[in-house]
What we know:
There is one protein chain. The protein is an alpha/beta fold. Helices cover about 40% and strands about 15% of the residues. Strand 1 (about 10), helix 1 (about 15-30) and strand 2 (about 35-40) form a beta-alpha-beta unit.
Amino acid sequence: MDYPKLQSILLLDDDPANNFLNRLLINEMKLTDELHIFTDAPSALLFLASLDSAQQDLHWPTLLLVDINMPVMDGFEFIERYYALTGTNKENAQLALLTSSVYPRDIEKAKQYRVAAYLNKPLTENQLAKVVMRQAEG
């Protein structure tokens, strides 16, 4: 199946194995030519903050896939800081939470944030296709 191509995707997960598998899936689905992978939230935030001032040919991610449970800064704190970034082009971006958590409190907490989806790991083509199609409909 041909999926809509996204300008840029940011993948944030502290697990290198998950990142490897998710990168393979994203590439196999041909979703973007610009995939940015981070294993910690502070680095991802620094990258995003640099996009507006950078003289480079990189685009603001139209889809951010964010793990909830990470050391140093969890996915929820990342989202709070993401929304606090100023001077950015977040209007067309979607956030999707990636998690292995089945805790009801995490599911309820996710509802408090503007997230497009709450995706259980491992990420599947079907899950990702739904988010991408929703993003394309916009």
